[in-house]
């Protein structure tokens, strides 16, 4: 790794792809020197110094590329603002005039920007077809059949991605030239051999910021944590070996632990209502997939970071059971929270079969031979035989927070369809009550920050970066207890395991194969209000897999709570207040479907049964 800093100068001609700088100064990250060692030696943490566009006035105009920003990123120190401006300009300077939206557009943009890539005139009819009409499986087939070249596909998605970025601030890096170069190599290989290099041949794949791609930068969502990646992480390496084309990295929150993706790169917006969040921590991925600037993306999830954004943006998002997929060499994989709550990785997509395609091909490469944490489970996916009738538990609420009205409507829609008498031989539908969701929420919030957020806060602020509201809120419960010692962390582990045993006992008594319920307390949240992750974090605590699936349902006007509503908790009361304060018009509504720990293929077998009834694309 290389971090942008003040020692060991690296000349401009060796600056990494995706980062154009006249003068780059770096120091090498080695196992022998910790971040504390850097502070002691250099007096400051890793940071960006300069780019050829940096100047004393850049703090007031952070980038020459106009990006929608209904709620600006808070101001830091002048030094931070100058460095942030330089970083933003490294992306902006790569975007040619013909791929920029007109200045007139930004004078009065619509709230729903999801259709702008089609109407703005930047994409050709063929590029619109490529990005609109194909999923990843379909693209792979079309490229193999020579209907499209890999270069045509890489060009189309690179162009649509940078349009999407101007509308939603979903990207952190964009490297169209490198993508086209790789795509040309793939086209040449197909022309020469008559075969593809693998199942992903020519398929563009977007990657979350903290996953490492050789020749790009990765971070924890703060300026201080920006590191240069000399090598691919194992996940990226596997995808690359199968023919995937990488063209961008996507936004995430400050220090990754928000359900809203706001970082020094900017605030990611919801494509269907820019007054709303795209979710976090993989919000850039979800927004880009929803904007059809990506057909397949990779994120991570330790509290809802795949499922929350997928829910906010109305796309598929799959959190595996821990260690089903490789996470070797992800930046921030050695996270203190993982002493008790292990992060998972997984795909975003626009079709159910693409999730299965991703999983089957990654697992077919035996990732456990390189990442020894990966459990060597076979993958049968959508071909898995499911029990008939499938016993489905419906979660109306978790006993802690009542979902907002449109989510209740989606749950009712699903229950009605599944309970249709014509489906009685396929499904047995019953109520399901998650075990002690309030206790789960309290426990996991303490487990996330055993160090009370103290070191993380100092790290972020070392460059003059402001601490965001949701970052501070995430540490709140942990700060009251202070930094935990080893015995206290071990006690949390014992409490976690006890809760897991109690949870599975409750699951067994309720006799279900899967459960269907909310993915969040409501639709996408208004900016800076995604406080309660209870419907996703519960499944991280017990380490059960979950898939968020789209529905045809959208928020319509100002829907009302039931007349007999009574809050289940103070948090529940707050959720109702948040609903009444904002407009959520147009936001998509999704469902979350969960199965037992390490029953990931069984979950997909159930999804295959549910596909037609729930109108899953």
Automatic annotation (TrEMBL):
Broad class of enzyme this protein falls into: hydrolase
Catalytic site: 208 (charge relay system), 281 (charge relay system), 305 (acyl-ester intermediate)
Top-level taxon of origin: Eukaryota
Amidase domain sequence ranges: 152-603
Binding of substrate, residues: 256, 281, 302-305
Catalytic activity annotation: a monocarboxylic acid amide + H2O = a monocarboxylate + NH4(+)
Keywords (A to Z) from UniProt: Hydrolase
EC number annotated for this UniProt entry: 3.5.1.4
The UniProt record lists the keyword Hydrolase: yes
GO molecular function list: amidase activity
Gene3D superfamilies tied to this protein: Amidase signature (AS) domain
Similarity annotation: Belongs to the amidase family.
Name recorded for this polypeptide: amidase
């Amino acid at each position: 790794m290389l971090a942008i800093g003040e020692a060991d100068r690296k000349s401009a001609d060796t600056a990494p792809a995706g980062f154009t700088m006249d003068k780059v100064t770096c120091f090498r990250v080695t196992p022998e020197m910790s971040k504390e060692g850097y502070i002691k030696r250099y007096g400051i943490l890793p940071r960006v110094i300069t780019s050829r566009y940096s100047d004393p006035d850049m703090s007031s105009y952070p980038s020459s590329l106009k990006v929608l920003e209904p709620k600006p990123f808070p101001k830091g120190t002048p030094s931070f603002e100058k460095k942030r401006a330089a970083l933003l300009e490294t992306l902006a300077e790569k975007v040619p005039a013909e791929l920029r939206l007109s200045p007139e557009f930004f004078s009065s943009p619509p709230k729903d920007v999801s259709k702008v890539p089609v109407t703005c005139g930047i994409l050709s009819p063929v590029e619109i077809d490529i990005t609109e009409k194909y999923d990843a499986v379909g693209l792979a087939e079309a490229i193999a059949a020579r209907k499209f070249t890999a270069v045509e596909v890489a060009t189309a998605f690179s162009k649509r991605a940078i349009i999407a970025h101007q509308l939603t601030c979903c990207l952190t890096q964009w490297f169209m030239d490198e993508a086209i170069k790789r795509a040309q190599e793939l086209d040449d290989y197909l022309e020469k051999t008559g075969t593809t290099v693998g199942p992903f041949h020519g398929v563009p794949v977007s990657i979350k910021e903290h996953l490492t791609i050789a020749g790009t930068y990765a971070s924890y969502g703060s300026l201080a944590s920006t590191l240069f990646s000399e090598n691919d992480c194992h996940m990226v390496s596997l995808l690359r070996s199968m023919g995937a084309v990488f063209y961008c990295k996507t936004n995430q929150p400050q220090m990754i632990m928000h359900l809203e993706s706001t970082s020094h790169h900017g605030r990611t917006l919801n494509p269907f209502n820019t007054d709303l969040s795209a979710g976090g921590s993989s919000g850039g991925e979800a927004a880009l997939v929803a904007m059809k600037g990506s057909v397949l993306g990779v994120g991570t999830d330790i509290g809802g970071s795949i499922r929350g954004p997928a829910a906010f943006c109305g796309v598929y998002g799959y959190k595996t059971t821990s260690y089903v997929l490789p996470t070797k060499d992800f930046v921030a994989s050695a996270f203190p929270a993982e002493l008790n709550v292990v992060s998972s990785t997984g795909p975003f997509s626009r079709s159910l079969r693409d999730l299965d395609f991703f999983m089957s091909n990654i697992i077919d490469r035996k990732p456990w031979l390189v990442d020894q944490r990966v459990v060597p489970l076979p993958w049968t996916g959508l071909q898995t035989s499911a029990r008939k009738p499938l016993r489905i538990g419906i979660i109306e609420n978790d006993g802690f927070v009542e979902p907002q009205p449109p989510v209740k409507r989606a749950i009712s829609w699903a229950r009605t369809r599944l309970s249709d008498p014509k489906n009685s031989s396929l499904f047995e539908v019953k109520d399901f009550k998650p075990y002690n969701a309030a206790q789960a929420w309290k426990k996991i919030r303490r487990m996330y920050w055993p160090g009370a957020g103290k070191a993380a806060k100092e790290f972020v602020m070392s460059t003059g970066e402001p601490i965001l509201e949701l970052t501070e809120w995430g540490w709140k419960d942990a700060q009251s207890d202070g930094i935990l010692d080893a015995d206290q962390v071990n006690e949390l582990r014992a409490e976690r395991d006890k809760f897991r045993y109690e949870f599975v006992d409750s699951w067994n008594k309720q006799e279900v194969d899967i459960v269907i319920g909310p993915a969040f307390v409501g639709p996408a949240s208004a900016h800076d209000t995604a406080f309660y992750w209870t419907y996703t974090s519960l499944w991280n605590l017990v380490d059960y897999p979950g898939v968020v699936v789209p529905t045809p349902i959208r928020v319509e006007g100002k829907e009302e709570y039931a007349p007999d509503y009574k809050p289940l908790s103070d948090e529940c009361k707050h959720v109702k207040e948040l609903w009444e304060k904002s407009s959520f018009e147009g936001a998509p509504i999704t469902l979350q479907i969960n199965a037992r720990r390490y029953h990931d293929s069984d979950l997909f077998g159930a999804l295959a049964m549910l596909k037609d009834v729930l109108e899953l694309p």
